[in-house]
């Protein structure tokens, strides 16, 4: 009897597995690709572009239709990446933080359009810094523009802050453009929002993330702080030559950049957004509604200050914590992640329930994203040139 029960369980598990990850993947245009064919394509891309490791998940109808990892978490040891292997999230941190912020908005705790300084009993620069650098706002003593900055401006990257203060010639923080007037990607803006919330709610960011996102979605292997339990299984970043970067484990918690997560956990996060597990449909719609139109030629660098009409066809813009574009399949929301040795990309088309997560521990990964997106889900809308995701075989 026990043998029959065990055989039945194995049959059910195998059958379920084949339903989830063995069937054809349906692209945006309804064309299909077999999972085995996608495996072969990704393997060829990884080899051609010298990508050390890659983790991919594809969504159909708001459910995971494909999930697989390729390559190594460490090129020296040749250990493979697992679904629960820790991966540094880089700027995927911003999208997850944005969802947490929207839970506070939904609860009436935060008003997107109230100046953030108004939540505090004293000027932000009068608080004594306790971190290495990111909560030091002494440079704003003689700045009046910062008082206009709202949560909405931080989330849609119109705060006027530089991406990071150390990008400035004197490494001092300042508001460079009138808040709300122009898109300019800013990690400082997200961190400013974080610090204000920490003072206002008297809670550290990690606690807010656990309470509002990680615990409700059962993201047990995610944190904005390096945890000792991650030591047993984590990815090391690799440069373009395949050489290892030293793993950074002592960062202060920052909303814009210190997420540690796994493929499985980021799948839970994406499912949570697609299936309205944390936010109401109305709140999600607001998050994915264009707040500012983007006209810059590039997202970063000198060309970010020059405008063009190149992305007008997709009506490129920024929502609240996510980039947004328009396609024949409705609004798409995307987020990149880019740090030394780690390059990620996620895009979802909520109207049709299609999406993809791509995570990598290689500086070469972005060079395969254009082809991978087209092959896996038929995404020909991602502004890869604006994002500087230049294909490894691209000829100008």
Helix-strand category: alpha+beta
DSSP E strands, number = 13
CATH class: Alpha Beta
How does CATH name the architecture? 3-Layer(aba) Sandwich
Helix content: 25-40%
Return Rg in Å.
21 Å
Write a short abstract of this structure.
The chain is α+β, with helices and mostly antiparallel strands. It has helices at residues 2-21, 35-49, 92-106, 151-155, 187-201, 205-214, 263-274, 281-287, 369-377, and strands spanning 25-26, 32-33, 53-60, 63-74, 79-80, 87-90, 259-261, 292-293, 317-318, 323-327, 330-339, 342-349, 354-360.
Main attributes?
single chain, 396 residues, alpha+beta, Beta-lactamase, nine-stranded antiparallel beta sheet, two-stranded antiparallel sheet, 9 helices, 27% helix, globular, disordered N terminus
Can you walk through the features of this model?
The structure is a single chain. This protein is an alpha+beta fold. The protein has one domain: Beta-lactamase. The protein is 27% helix and 17% strand. Strands 5-4-3-13-12-11-10-9-8 form a nine-stranded antiparallel beta sheet, sandwiched between helices. The protein has a two-stranded antiparallel sheet with strand order 1-2. Helix 2 (35-49) packs antiparallel against helix 9 (369-377) and helix 3 (92-106) packs across helix 6. The longest helix is centred in the first third of the chain and has 20 residues, at 2-21. It is globular. The termini are far apart.
């Amino acid at each position: 009897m026990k043998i029959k029960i065990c055989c039945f369980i194995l049959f059910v598990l195998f059958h379920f597995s084949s339903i989830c990850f063995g069937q054809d993947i349906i692209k945006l245009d309804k064309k299909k690709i077999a999972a085995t064919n996608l495996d072969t394509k990704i393997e060829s891309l990884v080899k051609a572009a010298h990508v050390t490791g890659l983790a991919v998940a594809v969504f159909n109808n708001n459910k995971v239709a494909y999930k697989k990892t390729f390559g190594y978490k460490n090129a020296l040891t040749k250990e493979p990446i697992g679904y629960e292997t820790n991966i540094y999230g880089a700027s995927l941190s911003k999208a997850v933080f944005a969802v947490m912020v929207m839970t506070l908005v939904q609860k009436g705790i935060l008003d997107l359009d109230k100046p953030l300084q108004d939540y505090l009993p004293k000027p932000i620069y009068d608080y004594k810094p306790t971190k290495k650098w990111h909560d030091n706002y002494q440079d704003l003593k003689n700045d009046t523009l910062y008082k206009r900055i709202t949560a909405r401006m931080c989330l849609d990257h119109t705060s006027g802050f530089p991406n990071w203060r150390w990008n400035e010639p004197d490494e001092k923080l300042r508001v460079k453009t009138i808040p709300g007037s122009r898109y300019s990607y800013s990690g400082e803006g997200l961190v400013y929002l974080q610090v204000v919330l920490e003072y206002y709610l008297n809670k550290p960011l990690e606690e807010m993330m656990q309470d509002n996102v990680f615990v409700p979605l059962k993201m047990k292997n995610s944190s904005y702080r390096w945890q000792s339990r991650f030591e047993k299984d984590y990815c090391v970043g690799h440069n373009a030559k395949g050489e290892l970067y030293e793993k950074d484990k002592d960062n202060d918690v920052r909303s814009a950049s210190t997420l540690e997560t796994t493929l499985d956990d980021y799948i839970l996060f994406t499912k949570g957004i697609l299936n309205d597990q944390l936010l109401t449909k109305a709140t999600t719609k607001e998050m994915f509604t264009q707040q500012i139109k983007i006209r810059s030629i590039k997202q970063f660098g000198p060309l970010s200050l020059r405008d063009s009409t190149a992305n007008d066809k997709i009506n490129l813009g920024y929502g609240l914590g996510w980039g947004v574009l328009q396609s024949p399949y409705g609004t798409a929301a995307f987020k990149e992640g880019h740090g030394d040795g780690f390059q990620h990309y996620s895009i979802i088309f909520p109207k049709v329930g299609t999406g993809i997560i791509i995570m990598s521990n290689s500086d070469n990964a972005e060079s395969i994203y254009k082809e991978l997106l087209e092959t896996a889900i038929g995404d020909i809308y991602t502004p890869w040139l604006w994002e500087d995701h230049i294909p490894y075989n691209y000829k100008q």
